[in-house]
Amino acid sequence: MKFESYDGLLFRRYRLSLMLFLFLNTASAIFSMIINTSADSSGVNLPLLSLATFGLTLITWLLLRPKWHMRLLNIAALVTGLLWSWQIVVKYETHIYFDQSVLIVSIISLFLISTIALNDQLLAFLLHAAPSGITVLWLDDGRNLAGILFTLALPLIGISLHHFMSRRQDAFTRELMQHLHREKETYSDLSMLDPLTGLYNRRGLENRMEHILTAYSGSHYVLLLDIDHFKAYNDNYGHAMGDQALARVSVAIRDAVRSRDIVVRYGGEEFLVLLTNVNPEIARKLAERIRQSVLALEIPHLFNDKVATHVTVSAGFAPLENNHFSDAVANADRALYVAKNRGRNTLLSAEEINNKHPFSTQQA
Question: Which of 42, 132, 267, 269 has an alpha carbon within 20 to 30 A of 142's alpha carbon?
C-alpha cells in the first residue's frame, strides 16, 4: 500500500501556512481600507492596495496549482513585511496628530499575523516582522523605545523557542518513521524466508524471480531436490532430529552453489535451486556437487539402507525456456520422480529421461 512520505506531509503543512499567512495579510489590508475609507477619503492607498492585490494573486495561483512545489513563504513574508512598513510610513506622514502609541498597536497587529501563521517558520517570521519593526523604531525616535523593544522581543523569543521545539519534534518523527520503515522491510524479508532453514520460501522465490530473469542473460536451470526416505527418518528419529537434518542439508545445498543462484525450501523435504546463466554441463556439475555435499554430511539414516546408511538426496533438473517457470518445474519434477524410481541418491536431467515415463506424484 502506498502512503505519503513524511516530507510530503511537511510540505503540505508548509503550503497551508503560506495560504493562511496570505489570507490574514490580505484580509487585514482589505479591512484597513474599509475602516479608513469610512473615516476619511485617504483610506485606499497604494501600500494597502498592493498588499491586497499581492495576497489575492498568490492565493488564486496556489488554488489553481495545487501540485506546485515552489517554496514562496520567505519571499511572501519579505514582500508583505516591506509593504506593511510602507503603509506605516504613509499613515504616519498623512496624519499630523499621530498618536505615538499607534506605532506599538501597528507592530502588535503585524506580529499577531506572523505569530498565527508563521509559528514554526522562524526565517519567514523575521522577514515579515523586521521591516515593520525597524520602521516603527525609526518613526518613534526613541519616545517609546522600551515598549517597542519589549513588543518586538516577546514574540521573537516565543517564536524562536517554538521553532526549536518544532524542529526537534520533526527530527524525532522522521527518525521514528525511518525506524518503522526499516522494521517493515525486516518483517517483509522475514516473510520471504523459511524460519527453519533460513532459505527463501515460495514467496521469496516469486519476489526474486523477476529480478533474476532480467538481470542475468543466458540459459537458466531449475533443480529440484528431495531427501530420500525422509518420512521414515522422521518416523524413527523424531521430528526434532528431522528438523536438524533439514537445516544441515539446506546449508550444504546453499554452500554448494554460487551466490547468484537462488536456493528455496520448496516443500517439506523438497528444495528448489534456480541455477542462473548456466549450460547443461555446469548445471549437472552443480547438481552433483550438491548430492555429494549432502552425502558428505554423514547424517546417520539406517532406514535408508537400500541406498546408503546416511541421508541422501535425489535430484532432477530442467532448462528454464522462454521464462516458462512452471513448465521447467514440471519437467524437473518428472526427472526427480524417475531418479527416485531408479534407486535414489542420483540425479537426472529432463533431457535424459524417456518421454514415455508417466508423470505422477513422487515418492518420499
Answer: 42
pLDDT of residue 186: 58
- Residue 335's pLDDT is 94
> Same domain, yes or no, for 170 and 251?
no
Give the end of a domain, one of 152, 182, 212. 182
Residues 6+ apart with CB under 8 A from 361: 337
Q: Where are the beta strands (DSSP E) in the chain?
A: 220-227, 262-265, 270-275, 313-320, 347-349
Q: Are residues 29 and 145 in the same domain?
A: yes
Sheet with strand 347-349: strands edge to edge: 262-265, 270-275, 220-227, 313-320, 347-349
- Residues 6 or more apart whose CB falls under 8 angstroms from that of 28 comprise 51, 109, 113
In a domain, 336, yes or no: yes
Choose the catalytic residue: 269, 270, 298, 351: 269
Look at residue 114 in the predicted model and tell me its pLDDT.
Answer: 75
Residues 197 and 247: beta-carbon distance below 8 Å: yes
> What letter does residue 233 receive in the DSSP assignment?
H
Split into its structural domains, the chain has a count of 2
- The verdict on residue 195 lying in a domain is no
Phi, psi (deg, nearest 5) at residue 18: -65, -45
Domain of residue 76: give its range.
Answer: 6-182
Q: Which residue ranges of the chain lie beneath pLDDT 50?
A: 1-3, 41, 96, 356-364
CA angle 131/134/138 to nearest 5° reads 135
- C-alpha span between 84 and 76 (Å, rounded): 12
211-224 as b/e, with b when 16 or more CB fall inside 10 Å? ebeeeeeebbbbbb
Could you say which of 148, 182, 216 is where a domain stops?
182
Determine contact, residues 290/315, Cβ cutoff 8 Å. yes
